[in-house]
UniProtKB/TrEMBL annotation:
The gene is Strn3_0. GO terms for cellular component: dendrite. The lineage of its organism: Eukaryota, Metazoa, Chordata, Craniata, Vertebrata. It comes from Ploceus nigricollis. This is STRN3 protein. WD repeats lie at residues 9-41, 135-176. It comes from the Eukaryota. PANTHER family: STRIATIN, STRIATIN-3.
Length: 213
């Protein structure tokens, strides 16, 4: 609707897969199938501040990104340099081809969590780059992750049609919900926690978005 559209950011040359917003500097990060990550300041006349790719980069001073090479990297937003590459993604100097579908950061701890096509969820220490824990989490590809605002629970979604809620301390599954039907071998695309209320939500290939209490 033209009356609600505040503006359009144009720069990516392929599908935009994910967005992350920082309220500290009112900046927006976007990642795209064109292989780039872009940092935006939307109100500016030239809103694209910087563009990042797999070799170089563009808490609020850092961002974490995963690439279809199987690598996950933390970048310093001020210097545009890579700070940490997670160790389990690199084997004998050759990057793994294990596709990463989602990457999230813990809200209070220096921990990054990745969701993998091979059904795994992996946990990494942001300071050392070393893997803390790895687990087979679903019966099919893990497509989405979300951490609750208090950092107590992790929620994962999968093409096995289920949402699973995990205790982050014990890494155990405390609840499972069959949420969406499969369509063309795909099911759940995204999951989310409400920032202040006891709601969770999911979006699926069956064209439905669901909210659970």
């Amino acid at each position: 609707e033209p009356n609600v559209l505040a503006g359009t950011l144009i720069a990516h040359t392929d599908a935009v897969w994910s967005l992350a917003y920082s309220g500290v500097k009112n900046h927006l990060l976007s990642c795209s199938a064109d292989g780039t990550i872009r940092l935006w300041n939307p109100p500016e006349k030239n809103p694209c501040i910087c563009t990042y790719n797999g070799e170089k980069g563009c808490d609020p001073a850092h961002m974490v990104a995963s690439f279809n090479t199987g690598s996950t990297v933390i970048y310093d937003l001020e210097t545009s340099q890579s700070v940490v590459m997670f160790s389990s993604q690199v084997e004998s100097g050759v990057q793994s081809n294990n596709h990463i579908n989602k990457v999230v950061s813990h809200p209070t701890l220096p921990v990054t969590i990745t969701a993998h096509e091979d059904r795994h969820i992996k946990f990494f220490d942001n300071k050392t780059g070393k893997m803390i824990h790895s687990m087979v989490a679903h019966l099919d590809a893990v497509t989405s992750l979300a951490v609750d605002p208090n950092g107590i629970y992790l929620m994962s979604g999968s093409h096995d049609c289920s949402i699973r809620l995990w205790n982050l301390d014990s890494k155990t599954c405390v609840q499972e919900i069959t949420a969406h039907r499969k369509k063309l071998d795909e099911s759940i695309y995204d999951v989310a926690f409400h920032p202040s209320k006891a709601y969770i939500a999911s979006a699926g290939a069956d064209a439905l978005a669901k909210v659970f209490v």
